[in-house]
Amino acid sequence: MQESPATVTRSPSPAGVKPFRFHTSLVLQESTGLRAATLPTLLKLLHTVPDSSVYYHTHYFLLQHHYLTPEPTNDFAYWVSEVLRETLLGEQLASIDTMEHATLQSLRQTITGAIERYLEAHPTARVKFVSEGQEFFFMKAVHVILPTPYAVSTLLEFAQALERVSVQSIYFHVFDARLRLSQPTNDFARWMTDQLGLKRLGEEVARLDPYTQTLETLRATLLALIRQELGLQ
């Protein structure tokens, strides 16, 4: 779905309400030049790679496969399980709840902590390595943020725009927002609470777990909550 200047019913902005501008982002891939053939090397590099690399390997995967349910797990868990064949650690990394972390640094510490504990309990994993070409190649994400044609001032206008924006826009305002704001909320919930005064709706939107559903399902869930608030269903 592409952003387009389709018709949105406009009404005068309520006094004191700051319009919500929908944005979208292009996530470009860039190599860091770093790679790991062993678990200790993966751990060492995980301590030093930029946050944009941690983001790429824990979030960009979700955007690439947004149509799958459940979405694939993070790249670290996949490599450890499917390439290095350390299934137990892979399961531990896959079970990390990304929603619990408002910052990439917190998420990084949880991942490295799990690997450190595993290496202490399984010393033989230290000497296990993969063949050339199967190494973990660290990538990083470069964001290009772009405005869409949609700026809305009422909940009805918001719903109409939400029906039309691309999944990349939803991803930006829900996934990226939590990391930008460093708090357990998203752009939609903040605007509903702070600008429209819809605290209950804002709390419901903030509680949605975007990691357990596709982006299209998330769109549908958001629209259902808004229509209920508007008394349209």
Provide the descriptors you would attach to this structure in a database record.
49% helix; alpha+beta; 233 residues; 10 helices
What does this entry look like structurally?
- The chain has 233 residues and is α+β, with helices and mostly antiparallel strands.
- It contains ten helices and two strands; from the N terminus they run E-H-H-H-H-H-E-H-H-H-H-H.
- The chain has helices at 39-48, 51-64, 75-83, 87-94, 104-121, 155-162, 167-181, 187-194, 199-207, 215-230; strands at 20-36, 136-152.
- It has a two-stranded antiparallel ribbon.
- Helix 3 packs antiparallel against helix 4.
- The model is unreliable at 66-72 (pLDDT under 50).
How much helicity do the residues have? 40-55%
The residue-averaged pLDDT reads: 87
Terminal residue distance: 25 Å
Radius of gyration: 20 Å
Structural class based on helices, strands and sheet pairing: alpha+beta
User: What's the story with the biggest beta sheet?
Assistant: 2 strands, antiparallel
* Anisotropy-based shape: elongated
Looking across the biggest beta sheet, what order are the strands in? 1-2
